[in-house]
């Protein structure tokens, strides 16, 4: 295999192997975007922050590179317990790319497992 496979993403790997189509990849990424909410979005849905407060935190984050939750606590917009709850919810609901492909019916769970094994084997052989 070529050295660039070291940096190969799983979707490209599946596409190269003709397991999925470009449309499958786009649909799976869209499902991930819809499902994998950012911490600010979750805080808004809980009524803990407004859109304006989230935008303020994001602006500060651009300059400081601090984590969203750290800024929210420093600005007295959230407490540490709320940040921990938001992070837990974000993690609990996270959907991986392969999961999205299975949910959409683009591949089966068995195919996902087998292709992940091959993908990881290939990636490990490049290190």
How would you portray this structure in words?
There is one protein chain. With 127 residues, this protein is mostly helical. The chain has one domain (11-118). It has eight helices and no strands. α2 (22-35) packs across α7 (97-104). The model has no long low-confidence stretch (mean pLDDT 93).
The geometry reads as elongated
Question: What gap, in angstroms, lies between the N and C termini?
Answer: 12 Å
Major sheet summary line: none
Order of helices and strands: HHHHHHHH
Overall structural class, as computed from helix and strand content, comes to mainly alpha
- Catalogue the unreliable spans: none
Strand content is under 5%
Backbone CA Rg: 19 Å
- Count of strand segments: 0
Mean pLDDT: 93
Number of helices: 8
How helical, in percent, are the residues?
55-70%
Query: What is the number of domains?
Result: 1
Task: Provide a brief overview of the structure.
This protein has helices at residues 10-16, 22-35, 39-45, 51-64, 68-74, 80-92, 97-104, 109-125. With 127 residues, it is an all-alpha fold.
Draw up the topology in text.
Blueprint: H1 10-16, H2 22-35, H3 39-45, H4 51-64, H5 68-74, H6 80-92, H7 97-104, H8 109-125
Structural descriptors:
mainly alpha, elongated
């Amino acid at each position: 295999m070529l050295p660039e496979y070291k940096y190969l993403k799983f979707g490209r790997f599946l596409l190269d192997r003709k397991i999925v189509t470009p449309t499958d990849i786009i649909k799976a990424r869209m499902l991930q975007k819809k499902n994998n909410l950012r911490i600010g979005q979750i805080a808004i849905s809980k009524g803990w922050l407004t859109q304006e407060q989230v935008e303020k935190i994001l602006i500060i984050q651009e300059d400081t590179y601090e984590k969203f939750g750290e800024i929210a606590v420093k600005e007295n917009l959230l407490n540490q317990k709320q940040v921990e709850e938001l992070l837990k919810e974000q993690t609990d609901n996270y959907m991986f790319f392969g999961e999205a492909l299975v949910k959409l019916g683009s591949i089966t769970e068995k195919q996902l497992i087998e292709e992940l094994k091959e993908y990881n084997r290939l990636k490990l052989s490049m290190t």
